[in-house]
């Protein structure tokens, strides 16, 4: 059976809203990871047949097919195609699925999958303000009895359904920051981060190579002082939710034969990919059936998976997921998650996949699984297999 392998994966450091990447146009942000990925693998960019990029807020500077413009801004030949995908928070994870499918089908030999989001320059939700009507339409409003959906309210519903406490959410948030800080200080992330020119708080140029969202020195007492955001007597706060961020990420996908011809050593293959969709009101529960589908399709069990990445859009999401699968916290998000790093929407899927791939190689872990909740009540789940 034809295969697709991942040869390399890289990303920018993630910038906080209004932070180091505030002056970088999202097209140039995406171009940076494309150029860096090709250069460090010594590939002629003319060999790239397509760039599949995730981006959620496709308006303004991120409109008009940011994937194509990022490829051109990277200096790739005009013969390199590009397209842009929106599956909400899972956009760049979906981009990888599309890239792998194209290679397996024989449509392409080399594809770059990735994503970009500058939430500083293109605010979240701004695409919904372009026009006189509401984004969801009257039929959706009639079906669900509402005129919109709130991920934050969904996170509160998840916490209530799985009987999760404020303390549990805050403890996971603290652990996310602690793990991310430990990985950073140990140099674990250095191989995956492509330094980029950014700005300091004072507006001076800096070599930006360290994720900005990681907060040292947090305590349960400090987190406990934060007000809840979506429900007066709720449990979801800014401290146990993902951060609004800027960043880009990309993965180099090709056939094993092409990798051999180019003298490149593959890291992993996509073993199984699955999708799930559930109630868009609670919205954030789909990683559970997506994981179930991926495991069933793969013939593997949760016990076979060495590392899980469950996106920390809100702390209640991975906590509910762990309850359902009986997986200990030691195997979930080992280097921390989006609560610490941030969640640049269109880039997050590939950012997390990049971390997963490098962690699997560093720890010689055979199987890893990534899943993400997505607006609209959907989720992707992807199982990677390490190539030894």
From TrEMBL:
Record keywords, A-Z: Acyltransferase, Transferase
Listed GO MF terms: acetyl-CoA C-acetyltransferase activity
Residues of the Thiolase N-terminal domain: 5-255
The EC number(s) this enzyme carries: 2.3.1.16, 2.3.1.9
Keyword Magnesium belongs to the record: no
Transmembrane segments: none
Active-site residues, as the UniProt record annotates them: 89 (acyl-thioester intermediate), 343 (proton acceptor), 373 (proton acceptor)
InterPro entries recorded: Thiolase, Thiolase-like, Thiolase_C, Thiolase_CS, Thiolase_N
Residue span(s) of domain Thiolase C-terminal: 265-385
Family: Belongs to the thiolase-like superfamily. Thiolase family.
NCBIfam families linked: AcCoA-C-Actrans
Name listed for the protein in its UniProt record: 3-ketoacyl-CoA thiolase @ Acetyl-CoA acetyltransferase
Organism encoding this protein: Brevibacterium yomogidense
């Amino acid at each position: 059976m034809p295969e697709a392998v991942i040869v390399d994966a890289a990303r920018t450091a993630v910038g906080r809203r209004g932070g180091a990447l505030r002056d970088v146009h999202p097209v140039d942000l995406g171009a940076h990871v494309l150029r860096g990925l090709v250069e460090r693998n010594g590939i002629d960019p003319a060999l790239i047949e397509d760039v599949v990029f995730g981006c959620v807020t496709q308006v303004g500077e991120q409109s008009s097919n940011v994937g194509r413009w990022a490829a051109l801004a990277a200096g790739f030949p005009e013969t390199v195609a590009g397209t842009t995908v929106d599956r909400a928070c899972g956009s760049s994870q979906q981009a990888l699925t599309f890239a792998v499918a194209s290679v397996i089908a024989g449509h392409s030999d080399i594809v770059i999958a990735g994503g970009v989001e500058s939430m500083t320059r293109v605010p979240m939700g701004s695409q919904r303000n372009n026009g006189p009507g509401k984004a969801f339409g009257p039929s959706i409003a009639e079906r669900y009895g509402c005129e919109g959906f709130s991920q934050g309210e969904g996170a509160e519903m998840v916490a209530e359904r799985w009987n999760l406490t404020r303390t549990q959410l805050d403890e996971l948030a603290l652990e996310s920051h602690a793990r991310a800080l430990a990985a950073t200080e140990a140099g674990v992330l250095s191989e995956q981060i492509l330094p980029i020119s950014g700005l300091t708080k004072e507006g001076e140029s800096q070599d930006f190579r360290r994720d900005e969202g990681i907060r040292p020195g947090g305590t349960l007492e400090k987190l406990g002082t934060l007000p809840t955001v979506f429900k007066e007597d709720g449990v979801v706060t800014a401290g146990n939710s993902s951060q609004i961020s800027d960043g880009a990420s990309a993965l180099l996908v090709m056939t094993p034969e092409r990798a051999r011809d180019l003298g490149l050593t593959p890291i992993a293959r996509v073993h199984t990919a699955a999708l799930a969709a559930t109630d868009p009101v609670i919205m954030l529960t789909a990683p559970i059936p997506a994981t179930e589908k991926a495991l069933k399709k793969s013939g593997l069990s949760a016990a076979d998976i060495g590392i899980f990445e469950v996106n920390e859009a809100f702390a209640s999401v991975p906590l509910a997921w762990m309850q359902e699968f009986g997986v200990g916290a030691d195997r979930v998000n080992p280097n921390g998650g989006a609560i610490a790093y941030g969640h640049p929407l269109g880039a997050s899927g590939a950012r997390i996949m990049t971390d997963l791939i490098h962690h699997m190689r560093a720890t010689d872990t055979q199987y890893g699984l990534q899943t993400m909740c997505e607006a609209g009540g959907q989720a992707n789940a992807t199982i990677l297999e390490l190539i030894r």
